[in-house]
Amino acid sequence: KRLILVGPPGSGKGTQSPIIKDEYCLCHLATGDMLRAAVAAKTPLGIKAKEAMEKGELVSDDLVVGIIDEAMKKPSCQKGFILDGFPRTVVQAQKLDEMLEKQGAKIDKVLNFAIDDAILEERITGRWIHPSSGRTYHTKFAPPKVPGVDDVSGEPLIQRKDDTATVLKSRLEAFHRQTEPVIDYYSKKGIVASLHAEKPPKEVTSEVEKVLSQ
Ligand code: AP5
Ligand code: ZN
Ligand code: ZN
Predict the structure, then answer these.
(1) What is the spatial distance between Cα 121 and Cα 117, in angstroms, rounded to a whole number?
(2) What share of the chain is helix, strand, coil (3-state, %, to 5)?
(3) Mean pLDDT across the stretch 13-30?
């Protein structure tokens, strides 16, 4: 299947992705993760993206379309994929459609992580991640066995630089202004499935499974 996960910061896209990936054997492409890796490695792409990311603004369409175009060429992504955090503007959605048309492919489903803004600050400020695996924890909702330590590798967990209440405000503004129109774009094609993303993680997983089994 070819899937898109869309939703505001903290809505649970990154939490559900590995579960979907394991069950359906898809390639998982998260533009946020790829950009953070580029920033950490100080590549030319990372240097260009850093400032916008720290302010909670979107990186330019050309940069992210370029990374996705490149990443989708991987053999593992030919039969299906999960896009987490892309497309985030209508221009990105149109570019993606063009890329897929060339392969005679199309998006099967857009999973919309619908949730009220008010819940997101607690989720974002309590998040801890294990950078190399992408495993995500939360001090209250999904605590690691030992505080600050990854359950599997024993390596330290970190917090994202943009996970502050102040930067979250800009990220939410970008979501409502630039990304909600993407949901309308796919609604017109009749492929959006909305989830109750405020529910506990396991219940969200069940909703995802129900949608994907249809
Ligand atoms: P990105 O990395 O995509 O961040 P985001 O969209 O802000 O989304 P998050 O990763 O914050 O949220 P999530 O939904 O994955 O939440 P999670 O599952 O971790 O993008 C970062 C930046 O990169 C952007 O601001 C932009 O600058 C740039 N960028 C990326 N893509 C771009 C693009 N296409 N175009 C332009 N710029 C781009 O969950 C959050 C927390 O809540 C965790 O602690 C988790 O444990 C907990 N939690 C999860 N689910 C539940 C639940 N059901 N109940 C209780 N707690 C839960
Ligand atoms: Zn994420
Ligand atoms: Zn809105």
Answers:
(1) 8
(2) 50, 15, 35
(3) 87
User: How many separate domains does the chain show?
Assistant: 1
8 lines ligand 1 (CB under 6 A): no
Nearest CA to ligand 1 atom 53: 201
Domain assignment of residue 20, yes or no: yes
Nearest CA to ligand 1 atom 5: 9
127 is catalytic: yes
Tell me the ipTM for this assembly: 0.97
124 CA distance to ligand 3 middle (Å): 18
Q: What ranges in 56-200 are assigned the alpha helix state H? A: 61-71, 90-102, 120-125, 165-174, 180-187
User: Among residues 36, 50, 95, 127, which one is catalytic?
Assistant: 127
| Banded model confidence at residue 132, pLDDT cuts 50, 70, 90 | confident
Tokens, residue 91: 């221009």
User: For the whole model, what pTM was predicted?
Assistant: 0.95
Is 40 inside a domain boundary?
yes
Structure-token pair, residue 68: 């996705």
Contact 35 CB / ligand 1 (< 6 Å): yes
